[in-house]
Amino acid sequence: MCSLRVTTDADRLRTELRDNSVRVIDVRRAEDYKKDHIPKSVNLPLAVLLSDDDPQRVAKIAQSLGIDDQTPVVVYDDTFGALASRVAWTLEYLGHADVSLLEMTYGQWKSLGLETDQKEYLFGPKTHSVHPRPEILASADYLEKRKDQKGVILVDNRERLNYLEQHIPGAINIPYRTLASEDRILRPHDELKRLLKNRGVVDDAEVITYCGSVGTLSGLAYYALKSIDYPNVKLYVRSFKEWKGLNKPTTKQENADYWDLSAE
Amino acid sequence: MSKVITKPEDPRMPAINWARGEEAENFAKTVRLYRQGKIDADSFRRFRLQHGAYGTRMTDDYAMVRIKIPAGQIYPHQLEKIAHLSEAFSIGSAHVSTRQNIQLHWVVLEDVSEIMRELADVGLTSREACGNTVRNVMCSPLAGVCNKEEFDATQYAIATAKFLLRNPLNQALPRKFKFNFTCCEDHGMVRMTDVGLIPQTRTIDGKPQRGFKVFLGGGLGNKSFVGHQLEDFTPEEDLLYTSIAVIRVFDRLGDRKNSARNRMRYLVDQMGWETFQNLVLKERAIVRVTQSVIVKLDVDTAVQDISSPVRISGFDDKSIPDGFSRWRKTNTCKQKQGDYYSVSVTLEAGDVTANQLRTLADVCREFSAEGHARNGFVQDLYLRYVQESDLPRLYSRLLKVGLANPGSLTMVHPVGCSGTTSCNLALTNSHRLAKEIQRKFIEMRLDEDDDLRDTTIKISGCPNSCGQHEIATIGFYGGGSRMNRDMYPVYQMSLGGRSDGQTMLGVSVIRIPAKRTISAILKIIDTYKENKKAGESLKMWIHKIVTGHADSKVKSVDDIKKILLPLTEVPAIAADKDFYSDYGSDSHYHTRTGKGECAA
Ligand code: SF4
Q1: Helix or strand or coil: residue B179?
Q2: Fold of the domain spanning A137-245
Q3: Count of domains in chain B?
Q4: Rg (CA), chain A
Q5: pLDDT single digits (tens) B129-176
Q6: Please, which residues have CB within 8 angstroms of residue A39's CB and are 6 or more apart in sequence?
Q7: Would the CB atoms of A177 and B585 count as touching at under 8 Å?
């Protein structure tokens, strides 16, 4: 099963909002949402979702936000699309078919002068089924078994310095910032395709993405790959934090003091 | 604070597009062929360097992309592009080099072509930034505003860069080749480069004529030389012919075999200055007759568009942030255009984050009446044509992003090459040491001490001179020493180097353990304070000592050596583990080097 679309552009979202044919989820913190948000959007802070992202609970959350199996969902954040990606992925994992990312961040939406609202929205409860999709998830065990096999590519989406310092052996590094253009959370398709091809990430591979801790940055990479129709992408959702916690092997770039080049 | 009105897009854009779109695709293709084993490593390396991608310490997977900024002129949208590229493909910081390039480090080799592609969007290139070519043509960041200059050399530098970029003349020289233009004797490095040029005018038949003082065959490196002046006056119409002639002589006679001795300065040294000088003059005569009609230097003579941004209201004096006057004293200078100031932005060893670059782009649009910035010579960046009344506001903007450190134009702003952060040849973390010195000296407020102001500190991570230690008042280059079986990092200290009208190379003094370098500098300052004559700066005092004219108790380099000797004492490893590790590392020090690519 494949999602209908990966990103939604502003025009389309505005039309759908007018038609009341979409549910928009704002995944920023509650206080940010309270200040202002896209009209008719509901608030689901990422932290609330992550406190327990078991599909049964996620289904309840979806229901309480007025989302049933058929409701098209668009998710946005103000953090490069990474938090929105993690929420979208969780809904997808639940079995929701039509979930996409707003193609820009809330900051960009506002800077374009598009409409915002302070009114908080709640929609009547709906019913959502639970049909988990394990094929888009990678666990540590799965990763360990698969990662060195032919046709499997492991992608680390953290920033370069973090990667150099420590990463899962065999992973290649595509920092999440690589995936964005200057004004969209994801680059145009032709750019993404070329970039990934240069890096040897071929579309018939099984690609597993991971990042630092909860699968946000790698969630964005998951959608970047989906946006250019890579058919087999998995998110190692517990990511590097779990991997290290399990004392699994890591590797680093030795004998260079790259951190000292950073101006931070 | 009053609100700044948003300005419309600045129409002032760079006049020259340095990029060629197709080079990115070609680079990507060549990387693929190389990875498939269809191109041998040596040919690929040459190709890579020609396109401005340098190797990286201990790995073939990463490259450093050196973006050429001719004459250091960089526009706001270019700064923003580099910010974006640093986040997308590098470490989230970029690096301003001592030759006005901007470098992106730890770039995956397969991503280099993407950087080239996006650079082309803003007219920038990395072509011929490395390799045996004419490197970035430099020009003093104060050219055009300097009180002492005869005329603005900027457009001559840019025209020279434009003429030489991708020119068949310089695609396969015996070795790299460097042009430095300056404004005046004090603000440049004309005697420490292959071709150094100072603007000069003379009057002929009552008419002023523009020209240059041309210096040839200088340079820093494992062995350094001071350049020779070609002739009294080189008229501007001879500038290009002279450049071509020098490059042709070097191309023909330069050493292509012995890679340690193939810079032009060795050729000059080997054949003797007079012989070389004659060859160049003869060659120039030939060039003049054979090329005069078609080949001309395309110097842009348009008058620079200087227009200060208009603002609704002034700056509220009450909100001038702390530290402003200290910053103003040590980071700004008045231009020859009396109403304007040039501001040097303090970076740490040239490093700047993506967000800082974006702020620099913003403040450049808002405060610089010329609408662009200039990379400097000491890993810094200048905003020029800033109105005096805008300085406090500019300061507070820089302060917010950590770019308002004082002391940019003083001793507390050391130069440090990349060292073990990325360079294959490095023996020590010279880059971090420069930052450590800067932090410590700012904390001690040494930037406020006028006695120290004109002193320079420069650090290289190995005997090569990318950190320019030989022209520093206090210079260091890195190495390793051993106590029984344990190694520890050290720096060879030199004193008295300078790059102005009295250019000389620093005199070797003593090897100081890395962790004692700061104490050694402070010890020298203390000694100087005890012994100096009224009105004598540290630089002057050191100059007298190294040239044998000392008139204080400290008579010679040997005397200084004696004073510093206690600092070289080596503690047992159990007593002082820190001594045995380099800055930026908590593990035991070892020297590890790989194959160098553009050593000097
Ligand atoms: S001086 Fe040495 S360590 Fe520093 S950049 Fe040059 S070659 Fe590398």
Answers
A1: strand
A2: Oxidized Rhodanese; domain 1 (3.40.250)
A3: 4
A4: 18
A5: 999 999 999 999 999 999 999 999 999 999 999 999 999 999 999 999
A6: A17, A115, A116, A117, A119
A7: no
Q: Considering Cα of B439, then B105, then A259, then B485, what sign does the dihedral take?
A: negative
Could you give the CA distance from residue B217 to residue A198 in angstroms, rounded to a whole number?
Answer: 42
How many angstroms separate the CA of residue A238 from the nearest CA in chain B?
A: 24
List phi, psi (to 5°) of B252. Answer: -75, -40
* Tens digits of residue pLDDT in B559-571: 999 999 999 999 9
Q: Which two three-digit tokens encode residue A21? A: 């044919």
Average pLDDT of every residue of chain B: 91
Residue B353's region, left for phi above 0, alpha for psi from -120 to 50, else beta, is beta
pLDDT value of residue B188:
81
Neighbouring CB atoms inside 10 A of B316's CB total: 11
- What CATH number is attached to the domain comprising B151? 3.30.413.10
Residues B170 and B96 in one domain: no
Asked which of B121, B148, B178 is the last residue of a domain, the reply is B121
The residue among A206, A7, A154 whose CA lies nearest residue A88 is: A7
- Give me the residues paired with residue B213 across strands: B198
- The residues lining ligand 1, judged by C-beta closer than 6 Å to any ligand atom, are B 417-419, 423, 425-426, 430, 460-462, 464-467, 599
Q: Is the pLDDT of residue A50 over 80?
A: yes
Claim to verify: residue B87 and residue B149 sit in the same structural domain:
no
Helices then strands (H, E): number in chain A?
11, 10
* pLDDT over 90 at B586, yes or no: no
CB-CB under 8 Å, B422 with A258? yes
Domain at A7-119+126-132, CATH class: alpha beta
* Per-residue pLDDT, A150: 93
A173 to B84: CB separation less than 8 angstroms, yes or no = no
* Residue in A160, A199, A258 nearest the CB of B421: A258
Quote the domain boundaries for residue B30.
Answer: 22-121
Q: What is the whole-number distance in angstroms between the Cα of residue B417 and the centre of ligand 1?
A: 6
pLDDT tens-place string over residues B458-506 = 999 999 889 999 999 999 999 999 988 899 999 999 999 998 888 889 9
Same domain membership, residue B245 and residue B144: yes
Mutate one of A257, A259, A264 to test the B interface: name it (highest B CB count within 10 A).
Answer: A257
**Nearest atom, ligand 1, residue B478 CA:** 3
Q: Do A175 and B106 touch (CB under 8 A)?
A: no
Domain ranges for chain A: 7-119+126-132, 137-245
**Is B6 within the bounds of a domain?**
no
The secondary structure of B372-433 as a DSSP string is: -EEE-SSS-EEEEEEEGGGHHHHHHHHHHTT---S-TTSTTS-EE--GGGT-TT-SS-HHHH
> Tokens 């304007």 correspond to what residue?
B340
Whether residue B317 contacts residue B40, with contact meaning beta carbons closer than 8 Å, is answered with: no
Closest protein CA for atom 6 of ligand 1:
B466
Q: Is the pLDDT of residue B6 over 50?
A: no
B224 close to B465: Cβ distance less than 8 angstroms: yes
| pLDDT over 50 at A141, yes or no | yes
Interface of B to A at Cβ within 8 Å reads: 28, 31-32, 56-59, 80, 84, 87-93, 95, 105-106, 108, 110-111, 113-114, 347-348, 351-353, 356, 418-422, 429, 431-432, 435, 582-585, 592
Q: In the predicted model, what is the mean pLDDT of chain A?
A: 95
- Provide the pLDDT for residue B3: 35
Q: Verify whether the Cβ–Cβ distance B91 to A199 is below 8 Å.
A: no
Q: Is this complex scored with an ipTM above 0.90?
A: yes
Residue B358, pLDDT above cutoff 50: yes
Q: Cβ distance B107 to B90 under 8 Å?
A: yes
Helix axes B391-400, B354-367, angle to 10 degrees: 170
Query: Under 8 Å CB-to-CB from B485, ≥6 apart: which residues?
Result: none
Domain-embedded: residue B1: no
Are B220 and B145 found together in one domain?
A: yes
